[in-house]
Design a protein that fits this description.
mainly alpha, about 70 residues, 2 helices
């Protein structure tokens, strides 16, 4: 009998909001770019992790931009 590893669903930063900022190109929901979203499953784990580490900075920048625009 062959051993099989069955992976569950791939972890993704997607939060059910897909609207892209026209200035940065980042999704206001998850912070990724359109190419990153499209290629997410094909990216290496190293590249996905690098993007995930940058997402808090991106989303904070988007929030700050909106706050500045609305003040």
């Amino acid at each position: 009998k062959a051993d099989r590893i069955v992976d569950g669903p791939m972890k993704t930063p997607y939060i059910d909001i897909c609207v892209f900022d026209t200035v940065t190109g980042w999704c206001v929901g998850c912070g990724r770019t359109r190419p990153e979203v499209a290629q997410w499953r094909k990216l290496t784990p190293f590249r996905r992790k690098a993007i995930e580490r940058d997402l808090p900075r991106r989303t904070a920048a988007l929030v700050a931009a909106v706050a500045t625009k609305n003040s």
